[in-house]
């Protein structure tokens, strides 16, 4: 029971804690000063959203996100969100593959070697269906979370920081809404694919509230650490490196490898969401679908996505806030019988 719940918990965290989060860039963009209450609200919102998504997918015994999406946003908006989820997963996965190429360049390898490594790794991962992804998450994510937490706590201790300082100033509490909403669509895609594999409701409780609490605690400590070096962050593309500069080069290498795995887990979750949806159209083995999709994405890593993202991401922001509202109010409107809008 506990083991199954932890398995889904790591799937949720693996979907959420991509390179943007692990590097500190997302946290600093949304939170920063006066954000303790915002992070607390995020913890609650995130846990509730994960619980509702998993509860719906468990009830539906779903193998892809479409029936879950329909129950959450209603019939009329399902087609819109179906397209948006597919685009979101595709663009973020391509960016992750390109990110692996850029990581390779950082270590003086060719861009294409970095792309090749993540491409081969992703295809190999799905040779064992979804079980390969779940097994990897249970090994990689404890290392990633443990390594990140260790560095942050060490930094907090070495700098003599008080993580509970300035709790009376919380003007940035509204940041909880867009930050939570940012992660909603990929969670629907991934958790919608495992509804028929969840056996009990206890697994849902462990996964939903365990992931929310874990991310909440790490986010609070991480954000507090970044506040202490706020003046230096303008000099760093990756805020985590501003913390790591205080420690030996070996730790920088170790955390860089963990950042690559954060890229890998995010890409793997994106592929899972895409292939589970496509299996409704093309009844092929999951590894074959994954291979076709990944190979098709490789040429796209050379394109500039800034224009596409500039247009699509603001739309995501608005649509995601609507989904967030539906998820948080799900117990209320669901009881009234208004399942469709």
UniProtKB/TrEMBL annotation:
Keywords: Membrane, Transmembrane, Transmembrane helix
Keyword ATP-binding annotated: no
Source organism, top-level taxon: Bacteria
Coiled coil segments of this chain: none
Membrane-spanning parts: 38-58, 79-98, 110-127, 139-156, 176-195, 204-222, 251-274, 286-305, 311-333
PANTHER family linked to this entry: CONSERVED MEMBRANE PROTEIN, MEMBRANE PROTEIN
Annotated protein name in UniProt: Uncharacterized membrane protein YkvI
Organism field: Lentibacillus halodurans
């Amino acid at each position: 029971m506990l083991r199954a719940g932890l398995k889904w918990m790591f799937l949720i965290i693996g979907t959420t804690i991509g390179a943007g989060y692990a590097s500190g860039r997302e946290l600093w963009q949304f939170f920063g000063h006066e954000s303790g209450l915002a992070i607390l609200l995020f913890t609650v919102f995130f846990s509730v959203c994960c619980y509702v998504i998993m509860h719906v997918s468990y009830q539906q015994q779903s193998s892809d996100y479409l029936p879950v999406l329909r129950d959450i946003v209603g019939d009329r908006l399902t087609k819109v969100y179906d397209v948006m989820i597919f685009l979101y997963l595709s663009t973020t996965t391509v960016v992750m593959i390109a990110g692996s190429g850029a990581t390779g360049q950082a270590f003086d390898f060719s861009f294409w070697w970095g792309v090749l490594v993540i491409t081969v790794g992703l295809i190999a991962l799905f040779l064992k269906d979804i079980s390969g992804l779940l097994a990897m998450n249970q090994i990689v994510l404890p290392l990633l979370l443990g390594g990140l937490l260790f560095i942050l706590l060490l930094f907090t201790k070495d700098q003599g920081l008080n993580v509970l300082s300035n709790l009376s100033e919380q003007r940035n509490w509204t940041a909880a809404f867009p930050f939570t909403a940012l992660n909603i669509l990929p969670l629907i895609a991934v958790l919608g694919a495992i509804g028929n594999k969840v056996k009990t409701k206890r697994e849902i409780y462990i996964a939903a509230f365990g992931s929310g609490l874990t991310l909440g605690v790490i986010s609070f400590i991480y954000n507090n650490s970044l506040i202490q070096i706020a003046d230096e962050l303008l000099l760093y593309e990756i805020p985590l490196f501003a913390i790591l500069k205080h420690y030996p080069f070996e730790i920088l290498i170790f955390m860089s490898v963990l950042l690559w795995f954060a890229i890998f887990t995010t890409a793997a979750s994106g592929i899972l969401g895409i292939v589970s949806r496509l299996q409704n159209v093309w009844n092929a083995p999951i590894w074959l679908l994954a291979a076709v999709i990944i190979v098709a994405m490789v040429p796209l890593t050379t394109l500039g996505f800034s224009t596409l993202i500039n247009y699509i991401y603001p739309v995501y922001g608005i649509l995601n806030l609507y989904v967030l509202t539906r998820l948080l109010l799900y117990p209320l409107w669901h009881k009234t019988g208004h399942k469709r809008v």
